[in-house]
UniProtKB/TrEMBL annotation:
UniProt pathway: Cofactor biosynthesis; ubiquinone biosynthesis [regulation]
All residue ranges annotated as the ABC1 atypical kinase-like domain in the record: 93-343
Main enzyme class: transferase
Gene, per the UniProt record: ubiB
Record's keyword terms, sorted: ATP-binding, Cell inner membrane, Cell membrane, Kinase, Membrane, Nucleotide-binding, Transferase, Transmembrane, Transmembrane helix, Ubiquinone, Ubiquinone biosynthesis
InterPro entries (alphabetical): ABC1_dom (IPR004147), Kinase-like_dom_sf (IPR011009), UbiB (IPR010232), UbiB_bact (IPR045308), UbiB_kinase (IPR050154)
Any one GO molecular function term: protein kinase activity
Organism: Veronia nyctiphanis
Active site positions: D287 (proton acceptor)
EC number: 2.7.-.-
Name of the protein in its database record: Probable protein kinase UbiB
Amino acid sequence: MRFSEIRRLYKIVRVHLHYGLDEMLPKNKLTRWPHVMRRGLFWLKNKHANKEDGSRLRLALQDLGPVWIKFGQMLSTRRDLFPDDIADQLALLQDQVQPFDSELAKQEIEKALGGPVEKWFDDFNMTPLASASIAQVHTARLRENGREVVLKVIRPDILPVIQSDIKLMYRMARVISRFLPEARRLRPVEVVREYEKTLINELDLLREAANAIQMRRNFDNNPILYVPEVFSDFGHKNLMVSERIYGIGVSDIDGLTKNGTNLKLLAERGVEIFFTQVFRDSFFHADMHPGNLFVSYDNPDDPTWIGLDCGIVGTLNREDKRYLAENLLAFFNRDYRKVAELHVDSGWVPSDTNVDEFEFAIRTVCEPIFEKPLGEISFGHVLVNLFSTARQFNMEVQPQLVLLEKTLLYVEGLGRQLYPQLDLWETAKPFLEDWMSRQVGPQAVLNAIKEKAPFWAETLPELPELVYDSLRQGKMVSQRMDDMYQAFIDGRRQQNRVRFLLGVGASLLLTAAILYTNHVETLPELAGVSALGAWLFAWRAANK
C-alpha cells in the first residue's frame, strides 16, 4: 500500500473517530474487535460529543468528500432502515453540502465563459441556490431575453480527492478478492471500476448536458416528467447553464399535501417513469435522490415530476433488458422455478447449480413479501436475504446492473415517503407485461416491420440488380471453390509424387549400403547414383 493511500486511510479513520461514529456501532460479537482497536487509538477523541448522531454522521461524510457524500445521499432515501433523526440529517447531503467560496465559483464560471459574467447574464446571485458533493448552483437571468437560469459549476480541485478515494477502494477490493475467496463472486474490483466511471463522468458537465437533452427529448409532450431546457451555447466541461424551475421538493410531504397533490398518482408515476426509462428508452436517470427531484405546482391532481442533475445515467443492452424483464415478471408471477432457470441460463450462477434447491431458496426469501403494501416491506431487506441466498449458490454480481439496483432502491425509498400503501409490484407488473408482449408477440412483428419499412422501401427498386449481383457473386464463389479444390488435388498429387521419389531414393541408398558391405562390385555405385537421381527429381517436383 502506497504512502498516499495509507495517509488517506488514516484520515478516514480519524474523521470517523473525531465524530464518534464508532459509538454508533452496536455492541456484539461482530463489533468487538472494532471497539478494541478504537481503544488503541486513544489520541483520536470524539470532538463532537454534544451533537446528535445524525448530525455527526452527516458532518463526517461531508468532511470525507464526494465519494462518501454520494453514499450518504443513497442512505438518506432509506427511511425504513434509519430513524427519522438520522435520515433527516442525511437528506441535507442532497443539496445542502457546505458550499465553496462564491468568488472562486464566479472565477471558474468566467474562465469557462471566456469573459465576465455580466456580459451574458444579469442578476447573478453570489449566494448559491444549492450545493452538492460535485458542484454548486447559482442563479441569474439571460441578458438577451430575461429568462431565469441556473449556472452549475464543478467544485475546483475535486478530482484528486475522488482519485485518492477510488485508489483506496481498488486496494481494498483487491485485498478482499485475494484473502476472501467467497467474495470473488461479488466482483468487487469490477464494481469499483463501474463506480469510478460513474463519478468521473459526473465531473464532465458537457456529458450531463447531453444526457439532459436526451432525457428531455425522450419525454417530450409527456406530462409525467419534465426535464429543464439546457442552453448549450454556454456549455463547458465544468459549467452548465439551464432553465430555472420552480417546484416542490419531492421529500416535502407537507408542501405537496398543502398544494393538493395526488400523492398516490405521484408515487405510481415515479415507478412508471423508472420502468419507462429502463425498458422503453434504455436510458435511465441513475441518481434519483430527493435533491434531484421536484414536483410541479401546476395541476396537483395530475402531477408532473421534474428531474434535475442528469450527470449519472444508466443504459442496458437488449439482452440485459430482456433478462431483467423476464426475471421480474417471474418474480411477480411467483414462478420461482423460472427465476432459478433464468439465473442458470444467463450464467449468473454456475451451470451445475441444483435448480430445485435454488428454486426453494428463492421461494423462501420472496414469498413473504407479496400481497403487502410497500409500507410493510423493505426491498432493502429483501436484497439482504437474496444476498444470503446468493452466497449459497455462488451467484456473481453483474457490474452493469449496479446502477439499476441502486436506482430501484431510490425509487422504493421515494415511494415509501410519498405513499406508503403503494404496491410496487402491482404498479410495475402491467408495464412489464405490456413491454414483453411488444417484444415477443404479434406486436413485436408489426413493430419490426414498421421499423424496417423505410429501409425496405429504399432498397426495393434495387432488388433485381441486387439479386443479379448475388447470383453472379455466387457463381464466382463457386468457380473459386472449384479452382481451389482442383489446386488442392494437384497439390496432393505433387506431394504424393515427392514422397514416392524420396522413398525410392532412400531405398536405393539403403540397397547401395548393403551391396557395399557385401563387397559387390559396380552395383553399389549404380544404386547410389540412382538414389541421388531420385532425390533430384523429388526436389524438382516439390519446387514446381
